C-alpha cells in the first residue's frame, strides 16, 4: 500500500503544482478571465486520464489469460520507462518549472482561449496519463486480493491535492528539488519491483522463457499471505519465489538507475575539467588576439 501511496503522492503533487502555478500566475497578473479555459483544459486532462485507466482495467478483462499477461507485462515495462524518464526530468527541471510554465502561459494568453485550454490540457494531461499507466501497472503488480493498493493510490492523490492547495495558499513551503530527489529515489525502487513483475507476466505469457527457473524460494520463511509478506509486496512488490530473469532484470535496473539518479547534478571531475578547459581556451584566445594587435 505504501508503494502505491507514494505513486499517488508523487504523481499527484506534480500535477497539483502545475495547476497551482498556472492559477496563481493568472490571479497575480490580473487575468482572472483566463481561469475558465484553464480549468476546462485541466478537467479534460483529468477525464482523459481516468478514461485511459478505465480502458486499461476493463479492456484487459476481455482478453485470454496469456493475452492479459502479455499486455500487462508490456505496459508495465512501458510504465517503468516513462516513470524513469519523468523522475530524471523533474529532478533537473524542478527549480525552473515555474518560469517554464509562465513562459508557456504568456504565449497562450496572446493566442486566445483555445491556446489556454491546450496549455492546461498538455501540462496536466502528460502527468495524468503517466499516472494512470503506472498506477495500473503498480496496483496490478502489488494486488493482494483487496482494495488496499487502490486505496493507497487514492490516499496519495488526496494528500497531493491538499499539499497543492496549501502550497497555493502560501501556508506550505516546499523545497521542490529535495522533495523530488527523495521521492524519485523511492519511486525508482518501486519501479524496479514493477519491472520485475512485468517480466514475470511476460514469462507467464510464454513470451519469455525461464518461468520454472527460480532464483530462490523463501515462501516458507516469508509467506505471501502473512502481514510482513503483504507489507513487503505492497512497498517493494516483493515476491518470495522470483525467477532468475526477474532478479537479474531487477538488479540491472535498480543499481545503476539509483546510483545515477542520486549522483550530484553537474558535479564530478568531467564537469570541472570541461569548465577549466573552456577557461583556458578563452584565455589563450584573448592572449593570441592581444599579440596579433
State the gist of this model.
This protein is mostly helical. About 3% of the residues have low confidence.
Structural account:
Mean pLDDT is 78; it is low at 267-274. The N and C termini lie far apart (72 Å). It contains ten helices and no strands. The chain has 293 residues and is mainly alpha-helical. Helix 1 (2-28) packs across helix 4, helix 1 (2-28) packs antiparallel against helix 5 and helix 4 (97-111) crosses helix 5 (113-142). The chain is elongated, with a radius of gyration of 23 Å.
Anisotropy-based shape: elongated
Q: Tell me the fraction of residues in β-strands, as a range.
A: under 5%
Run of helices and strands = HHHHHHHHHH
| Radius of gyration, whole Å | 23 Å
The pLDDT mean sits at: 78
**Could you give a short account of the major beta sheet?**
none
For the secondary structure, the number of strands is 0
Assign the structural class, choosing from mainly alpha, mainly beta, alpha/beta, alpha+beta, or little secondary structure.
mainly alpha
Proportion in helices: over 70%
The tally of helices reads 10
Unreliable spans are: 267-274
The first-to-last residue Cα distance is 72 Å
Amino acid at each position: 500500500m505504501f508503494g502505491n501511496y507514494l505513486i499517488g503522492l508523487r504523481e499527484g503533487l506534480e500535477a497539483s503544482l502545475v495547476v497551482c502555478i498556472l492559477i496563481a500566475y493568472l490571479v497575480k497578473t490580473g487575468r482572472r478571465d483566463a481561469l475558465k479555459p484553464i480549468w476546462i483544459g485541466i478537467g479534460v486532462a483529468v477525464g482523459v486520464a481516468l478514461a485511459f485507466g478505465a480502458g486499461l482495467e476493463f479492456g484487459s478483462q476481455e482478453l485470454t489469460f496469456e493475452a492479459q499477461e502479455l499486455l500487462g507485462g508490456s505496459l508495465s515495462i512501458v510504465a517503468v520507462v516513462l516513470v524513469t524518464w519523468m523522475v530524471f526530468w523533474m529532478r533537473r527541471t524542478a527549480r525552473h518549472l515555474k518560469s517554464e510554465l509562465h513562459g508557456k502561459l504568456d504565449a497562450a494568453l496572446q493566442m486566445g482561449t483555445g491556446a489556454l485550454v491546450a496549455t492546461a490540457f498538455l501540462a496536466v494531461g502528460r502527468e495524468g496519463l503517466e499516472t494512470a499507466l503506472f498506477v495500473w501497472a503498480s496496483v496490478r503488480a502489488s494486488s493482494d486480493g483487496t482494495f488496499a493498493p487502490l486505496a493507497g493510490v487514492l490516499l496519495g492523490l488526496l494528500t497531493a491535492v491538499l499539499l497543492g492547495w496549501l502550497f497555493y495558499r502560501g501556508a506550505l513551503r516546499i523545497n521542490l528539488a529535495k522533495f523530488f530527489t527523495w521521492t524519485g529515489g523511492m519511486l525508482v525502487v518501486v519501479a524496479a519491483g514493477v519491472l520485475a513483475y512485468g517480466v514475470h507476466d511476460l514469462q507467464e505469457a510464454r513470451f519469455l522463457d525461464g518461468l520454472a527457473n527460480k532464483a530462490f524460494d523463501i515462501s516458507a520463511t516469508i509467506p505471501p499471505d502473512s502481514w510482513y509478506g503483504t507489507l513487503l509486496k505492497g512497498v517493494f512488490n516483493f515476491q518470495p519465489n522470483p525467477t532468475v530473469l526477474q532478479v537479474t532484470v531487477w538488479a540491472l535496473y535498480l543499481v545503476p538507475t539509483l546510483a545515477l539518479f542520486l549522483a550530484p547534478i553537474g558535479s564530478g571531475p568531467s564537469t570541472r575539467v570541461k569548465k577549466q578547459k573552456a577557461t583556458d581556451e578563452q584565455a589563450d584566445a584573448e592572449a593570441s588576439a592581444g599579440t596579433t594587435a
